[in-house]
């Protein structure tokens, strides 16, 4: 078993070496190392040489310390919960095995469970690292593409962001990519290319030979430029600890060795300030959310989006598509079919309800309607039941029998291809209204049945007009069916 000195070390570097020896992911090394650093800082402030005498009240104080910054402002529940998790695992590992730890850890389980639940809710309902403005990603991409770099660092930063805006690749993967053969044809689509690395260590999920498609020519040109730059400058290989190998890096600099996060974000903030959006802080992961969402919308195929993202399962992909930007993109893709006159009906109110709610993820029916995977005929064949009106579809499992309420119901939708049936139904309703007027001595629209018929006529007429028919055309079609 590893010694305490190997795990906690005398400084941060020894912590990292230990975690690397245990083959931990780089992501975990950084997160766990940061959490333990905070713990030992708190321990030093309490003038404790070890954790063997910590009691319940001490852990409560630790919780409070971990949850706030130096100014006393509280961190998010997700941030606090993640740090406490790493500290708890540290105690679970060492209790009873070394004198540094207490034999029994009186951990505040109830408080910890509450923080954990709040963190889960925050993760589920939040946007994560997604952009909050649907227009900002491409606005920035255009500004970066038109920018003239002032030095070699900005040259690489510009290329980095053009690639990030063109491929759903992770930031760390890209910064550590090798120059040689970093772009190869995709396995199942040889005419397309993706970013490639033989080094599993540079990928967060350690996908060996993972490939991320490049879906924009700007990104393709940026990679080709960097490869030519590397060749022209005849860079020599340098050691990469993540990859556990030596190779020529795509983002090689004279000093420091390769481009780093501070440089790319400083460049991003500079461009954002230049175009009047200095309040927006860029994250490379925001483009990843953006591109994965649009791959899902354009293809209508979540499996393709999952493969492009490099996710092992659908669960993580769904977390990406839950972001506010992704959710609105999916919903507006659905609304577009209304705007284009392909469908009509009060079902659109279900979409408006989903748009108005900040917590609601679009249900499978709305996502299917918004995608391009199903044609409208396939969608209407798959979802819901024939409406009792004889035209349109009731998009709930188990249609009601109330024809009079059908056209005003937010479960009702109708396709443009059903226009002929709609005219037939409109003619039948018109005839019913005419017969009611003729058969009544004191006809009035205040009569419940007459008012209901009038409402049905008006609503169905509006839907037909939505499909592009004029009042004159509607009148001709109805009369031809009444004769």
UniProtKB/TrEMBL annotation:
The UniProt entry, under Gene3D superfamilies, shows: Intergrase catalytic core (1.10.443.10)
Q: Which UniProt keywords apply?
A: DNA recombination
Which InterPro entries does the UniProt entry name for this protein?
Answer: DNA_brk_join_enz (IPR011010), Integrase-like_cat_sf (IPR013762)
Its recorded name reads Site-specific integrase
């Amino acid at each position: 078993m590893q010694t305490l000195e190997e795990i906690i070390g005398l400084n941060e570097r020894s912590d990292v070496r230990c975690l690397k020896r245990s083959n931990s992911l780089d992501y975990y090394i950084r997160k766990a190392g940061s959490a333990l650093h905070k713990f030992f800082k708190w321990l030093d402030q309490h003038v404790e040489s070890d954790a063997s005498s910590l009691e319940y009240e001490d852990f409560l104080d630790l919780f409070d310390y971990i949850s706030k910054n130096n100014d006393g402002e509280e961190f998010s529940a997700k941030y606090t919960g993640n740090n406490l998790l790493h500290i708890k695992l540290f105690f679970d590992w060492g209790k009873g095995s070394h004198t540094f730890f207490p034999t029994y850890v009186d951990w505040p389980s109830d408080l910890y469970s509450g923080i954990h639940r709040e963190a889960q809710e925050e993760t589920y309902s939040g946007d994560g690292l997604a952009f909050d403005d649907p227009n900002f990603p491409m606005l920035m991409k255009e500004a970066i593409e038109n920018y003239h770099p002032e030095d070699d660092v900005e040259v690489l930063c510009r290329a980095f962001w053009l690639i990030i805006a063109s491929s759903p690749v992770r930031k760390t993967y890209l910064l550590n990519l090798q120059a040689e053969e970093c772009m190869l044809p995709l396995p199942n689509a040889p005419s397309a290319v993706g970013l490639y690395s033989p080094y599993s260590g540079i990928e967060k999920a350690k996908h060996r030979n993972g490939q991320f498609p490049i879906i924009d020519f700007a990104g393709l040109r940026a990679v080709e430029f960097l490869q030519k730059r590397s060749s022209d400058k005849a860079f020599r290989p340098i050691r990469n600890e993540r990859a556990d190998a030596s190779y020529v890096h795509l983002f090689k600099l004279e000093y420091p060795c390769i481009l780093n996060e501070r440089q790319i974000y400083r460049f991003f903030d500079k461009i954002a300030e230049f175009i009047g959006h200095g309040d927006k802080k860029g994250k490379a992961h925001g483009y990843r959310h953006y591109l994965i969402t649009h791959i899902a919308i354009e293809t209508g195929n979540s499996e393709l989006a999952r493969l492009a993202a490099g996710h092992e399962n659908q669960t993580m992909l769904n977390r990406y598509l839950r972001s506010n930007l992704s959710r609105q993109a999916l919903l507006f893709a659905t609304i577009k079919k209304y705007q284009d006159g392909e469908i009509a009906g009060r079902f659109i109110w279900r979409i408006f309800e989903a748009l108005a709610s900040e917590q609601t993820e679009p249900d499978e029916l709305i996502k299917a309607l918004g995608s391009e995977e199903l044609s409208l005929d396939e969608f209407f064949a798959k979802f819901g039941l024939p409406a009792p009106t004889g035209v349109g579809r009731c998009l709930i499992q188990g249609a009601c029998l109330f024809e009079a309420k059908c056209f005003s119901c937010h479960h009702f939708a109708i396709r443009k291809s059903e226009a002929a049936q709609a005219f037939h139904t409109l003619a039948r309703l018109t005839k019913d209204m005419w017969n009611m007027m003729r058969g009544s001595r004191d006809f009035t629209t205040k009569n419940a049945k007459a008012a209901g018929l009038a409402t049905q006529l008006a609503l169905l007429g509006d839907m037909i007009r939505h499909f592009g028919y004029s009042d004159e055309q509607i009148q001709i079609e109805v009369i031809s069916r009444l004769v």
